[in-house]
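Fold sample X.
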Amino acid sequence: MDLTLWQYQFRIIMLGDSTVGKSSMLKRYTEDLFLETINQTVGVDFYVHFLEVEPGVRIKLQFWDTAGQERFRSVTRSYYRNSVGGLLVFDVANRASFEHVHEWYTEVCEHVKPHTVLFVLVGHKNDREEAGERVVQRAEAEKLAAQLGAPYVEASAKTGHNIREAFELLTRRVYQGLLNGEVQLREGWDGVKSSAPQTHQLRKPQSSVPEKPTDRCSC
């Protein structure tokens, strides 16, 4: 496989409190590995993965894994603006991490304007439910996701459950945003890059109905 061939590059940022498992999710998705103990992210780590969203359309995914600790926030904030997608991650056995999701969402929205960031909310470590450790119920997580205008997925890096689905859901959501104009290629913005903007044209759906204004956060 020629890793130099791709049509689009999407920059995706991992968001959430420290210890919710953002790095473990990326390790499972990009390398299919799970480590019981993983070094805490300091500042920002980078991962790269490739996904073919449809025949002939290959996406290079550049993931920014941000540290959840407050002392690194000034560093991680500098990466928000050049992101087109965000995985908002909380631990289903940690209510504080769930309560902080809206803060992460708001902070990104404040820093990325006038660009658009699309989100997926992930309830991570759902394997802990069997041990009776779950404190955030699916219904309240789905309610929050609806308020944020984001799909909701429950996953576990430990078992591998829904890890691939979470990342690919976000990737395909961004790609559909390109098709329908919700996300646009912009000069000087690295959230989305095209390797051949003159030769690879997006196949936007045709519609005779004018698009209505949206109150979605243009983040």
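Fold sample Y, listed below.
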Amino acid sequence: MDNLRVYVVTYNVGTSSPEEDLRGMLSWTGHKHEKSPDFYILAFQEVKAQPQNMLRDTLFEDPWTYTCKQLLRKEYIKIKSIRLQGLLLVVFCLKKHLLNLREIESEYTRTGFSGMWGNKGAVSIRLSIYGCSLCFVNSHLSAHDNQLKDRIDDYNSIVQDQEFHVAETSKIFYHDYVFWTGDLNFRLLEEYDKTPEEIERMILKKEIKPLLEHDQLRAVMKKGEAFSELTEQDPDFPPTFKFSVGTQFYDHKRRPAWCDRILYRVNSHNYENVTLKADQLSYKSHPSYTLSDHRPVTAEFVIKIPQQPQIVADKAGPSLPVSVDQVFSDFAERVVEFDKIVSWNDKDENKAIYRLKKEIPPTKEDWIGIFKEDFCSLDDYLTYEYVSKCASPSPETPTKHPHSPKLQRPKKFEITFPELPNRCKGKYCLVYFSQTEDKVTSVLGISNPFPIIENESD
């Protein structure tokens, strides 16, 4: 079994901008000798959502995504982000895993005003890596001590409503690993008759466990009313809400509570001969961040991913897989392989040749994008062309194997880019995306970096 590290962040930013250094929150040092997380899962709530901000963020990244991307860009690719008003979920992955990602998809559910408004609800992103399925959920549930039933209803609406287009994992809890986080807004039980001042005195005495015994989330999990499918490590940090903004002091307008939580689920026995497992390495708050009335909370996990079988030569016969672990799928890291591209000209019609190393279902939605060599987001393409429109079988490809007419060689195709954006100079690469009509996306291939040079006739 191989390990992958997953680092989860939840932060209700209270409409603030990222004016503080985020490296502490991300446990990010940038030192190459340290073990970096394979995934960063960043869940924000109450990102500024006025109409003018929403319009700007459709054209440009919101400040929180942009700041995190700039911090992580040397090692990570932003795989996917989804926003629902103030709710924002962003997934980053180490660049080395890019060609192992399959079936990336997002979903959202509104629960505000009986499902008509997105001020409360959930956003989610699912994907597969090395054949394992992961689902990440960021939710912001109903507020206030007396709205416990609404929070329970919110949760169950989200679980019922969210539907993905990957058949085997169409629901959240069908995935191998689920990480659910956000401002869940669970408070202390209403019948717990302590005042904010009394609760703060208990916190100062580090009496965390007696307080946690009266936590609403733990109560509903125990009763099976909500979140009982998930596991949470006991928080050993003080309540993360409600603080006076810009200070380390609780605001006594509300009783302190653990609103900001990170839970997880492992479907350990989804497969024969393999037991999946998640080990939680940390669960903590970050009290130095005072931009809002919440404190960010982070957790790091190590999850087990079955190795692909090693192939060894057998003198007596064909190569055989030798592995005690189950093979999840007929997985090929690089499904699409590009021929080496020497250079392109900025004013010419440019072509590239690629071959399919395995059969993939034909679709009108497959596309190839042009990215800068050092791109750090799958959204950062300069331009793209649909394969169905601009690719055709390469004339140099033989149709049959010379020694066996029935055997087909890997098919070769030629893709044409009729024009490039203006001032498109420097080093670039091509990335092949397989995409369904439902916008389920897989990364299947990437070309070598190549220069785009100025046409000498200009």
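Sample Y note: Helices lie at 51-59, 63-72, 148-161, 196-204, 208-212, 216-223, 387-390.
Also: Residues 148-161 form the longest helix (14 residues).
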